[in-house]
From TrEMBL:
This is Metallophosphoesterase. Keywords: Hydrolase, Iron, Metal-binding. Belongs to the cyclic nucleotide phosphodiesterase class-III family. InterPro entries: Calcineurin-like_PHP (IPR004843), CNP_phosphodiesterase-III (IPR050884), Metallo-depent_PP-like (IPR029052). One of its GO terms (molecular function) is hydrolase activity. Residues 2-231 form the Calcineurin-like phosphoesterase domain. It comes from the Bacteria.
Amino acid sequence: MLRLAHFSDVHLTSHRLGWTGRDLLTKKVTGWVNVKLLGRGRRFRHAPLIADALLDAFRTRNFDYLVFSGDVTKLAFESEFRQAAARLLVPGLPPVLGVPGNHDYYTGPATRAGLFEKHFAPWLAGERIDHHTYPFARKVGPAWLIGVNSSTANWSLWDASGAIGREQGERLVRLCDHLDDGPRILVTHYPLRTAKGHVERRTHRLRDHASALELAKACRVSLWLHGHIHRGYVLTPTDAIPFPVICAGSCTQTNHWMYNEYEIDGNSLSVLRRTFDFEKKTFVDGERVQLQLG
């Protein structure tokens, strides 16, 4: 039996962000206003405490692997990446496969500098096509974890959408053609659908969701894991989407704080939601769902 933990949207930050004059011309300014004045900072004020409780669970619950589906920072300052790496890349944890979120690719300079890739390189090890970082795949027991970057740096102040893109999609098909048998678990930041099965609003969605779904079918994906939406949910297979799609939610946002545990035995998937108990300062068991892989 393969045991995985799936966490997402940690949104850690630092006390000294390290502003430069160049930053004042980017969407970091509106992001900072959102953090300081519009409530995002308050919603994530306990993030360091909860992240430490999360790491305690990862050390003690006998996982084979951890899966991270993006947004380790709030505003993609390098100071945030440094502090997040110092907190999360610590001894005693199972290995991690991770992909960036839109907050990690918040601006063009952060994206071009490869700050997520620089500070979280251990999470990006795997088989890949040519010299391109994404996509990449790692064999974990009987299954393949496949990391795909669905995040893009957007110029519009309120644009939080993403895309896989044609070239990465072509590499994904080529990569999957070389993988041997076993369940294929796709990991992105962006979802295919909301909890109600709808495509997200235009400024928050995976822009190429239709072609991404066709890619997943062509690659014989068994399970799609993602974050981005801070309330976790599970979508069971349908005729349109023939594999489970699972959102981990945010592990650190107040009153949403959760992560998922997965047990894979053959084609059977058990999903356990674990939520943070603030009084006990630990994560506790919640709802369990039984599914079949696609």
